[in-house]
Predict the 3D structure of the following.
Amino acid sequence: MLTRKDFLKSGAALTAAATMAGGAPARAATKKKFTLAWTIYVGWMPWPWAAEKGLVKKWADKYGIEIDVVEVNDYSTSINQYTAGAFDALTITNMDTLAVPAVGGVDSTSIITGDYSNGNDAVILKNKTKFEDIKGQNVNIVQYSVSQYLLDRGLQMHGMTERDIKIVNTSDADMAAAFLTPDVTAVVTWNPIVEQIDADAGAHNVFNSSAIPGEILDLVIVNTKTLEANPDFAKALCGIWYETLGIMLADTPEAKAAQTEMGKLSGTDYAGFVSQLKTTHLFSDPAGAAEFTKGSQLIATMDHVRQFLFAWGMMGQGATSPDVVGIEFPGGHILGDAKNVTFRFNADYMAMAAAKTL
Amino acid sequence: MRLINRHPGKRGARLLAVVPFVALAVLYLTASAVRYAANPDDKLLPGIAQMAAAMNLMAFTQDMATGDYLMLTDTLSSLQRLIEGLAISVGISFVIGIAVGMVPYLRKLFVPFIAAFSMVPPLAILPILFIIAGIGETAKVTLIVIGTAPFMIRDLIMRVEEMPKAQLIKAQTLGASSWQMALRVVVPQMLPRLIDSLRLSLGPAWIYLISAEAIAAQDGLGYRIFLVRRYFAMNIIIPYVIWITLLAFLFDVALRLVQRYAFPWFAGAKTQ
């Protein structure tokens, strides 16, 4: 029979256990364990594959650290969690880095310029074949995402503005199903959804990111404070990244096997993964990636991006100009407030990978 | 005196009711202040000043693009969807619940089906719902109905079955037809119970409303929350959540008052 004494005892034991469990992972003074969070996207699939194949452990061991590669189901959540401090590194686009962690005061450094979208993001119209036909339509889109940036650039290039259309915020998870309903006639979305919708008769891919190459970038960012205290973490990440790319992009049976497995990990197969790779420009060579990161096109792109974010009120409340946040480029050029730099592009680690000094 | 027999006074009771709210607020503000000290641009736990500024922008400033007061438009659209959905649910469950509860043939026909159907997670079959109801307003209202009606129907069937058999026997000895018994004996007793059921369904109804607005929408409280979540604007999300909680609470109070004044006998009947 349960007596009061037993009851109180078990309660005390539970509380003690809970406190111990909560108190145990108290931050060690020297950080040895790091987390990289990723979400499903063709340009980020090398990460889980490298973790599965032991490449992550190999490079982490080389630098005497531990690296956890964790998947997050929802992209938005992964960014928010990173910004709240749950992860040390994250796979993310250039635009989202500026809009969330940078504007949120979490100083982040991009250490790997992984790829740019070269058709992965697209504007698709139903039964219409020209971009101009979008005028006056309801456009289903994940609002405030790179899709909206792409749409904005498309409208700009065709002499229109967002006033010419009506935006309906639609979850990416339901975009493909939404396109099947009669009242949805225009969508902007990303792969693999684009591929799925394109397969539909009547779907016309009228504008995509291959028209703005190098603007929608997929990066690996690291919290700047963590990076400064632990440059070895960034070195290990770069080592893992370029070794993995080397394996998967070679013309060998191993490369095909790797791509098949990455396809499976992202919910498709070899053919599906290859077709998504075609619309993704992977910077396979670290020297090229470093070169691009140092180039002037990146500065112009980031200026587009910050103007876009500012126009939509995403540079923070009460921001009076896009200059509130500073973005630093290799070589020291700064866009915006030099006293409030919270987004840094760094080409050093890519250069080390190119010079094989990792 | 034993613990279960000790009662706080009137003022003590009020004080006790306030304690958890104050404790939560203090806990939040402390955590917020700590994070703010470490990073003045912190987004996770905004302080009162940041939330007030956000609310000023959302509730009391006209939107630049549309000239609307966004929070007002959001609230009105959401309430319209919620009320439409719940009204349809109440209507359906009232008719089906009483008919199935009273007629044995209908009971055998529908009870297992309704029991099984109520277990289907509506959010898992969304694509089918889109094809049937589109992705506009109809779909949102439908989702609320699918989410709340099965529970209300089952609840009402059980309430009808719970009625003392003696009442129906007595009505029959007085010569009442099935139809007369439904109208005179069952319906009047079920109305206040339907209000109870509706009160319990408010929570799920809000959940389905917010989910529906997260999927595809141009306005609404859920739409706004999921939209600004993309850039982590907790200074908008937290006041919106408080506002939703307050609205739901007011609904609940209103329904309780309706029940008390429209069916004064019911409180007595329940304690028996």
Observations:
- DSSP finds 15 helices and 14 strands in chain A.
- The radius of gyration of chain A is 22 Å.
- The domain at 121-211 of chain A is CATH 3.40.190.10 (D-Maltodextrin-Binding Protein; domain 2).
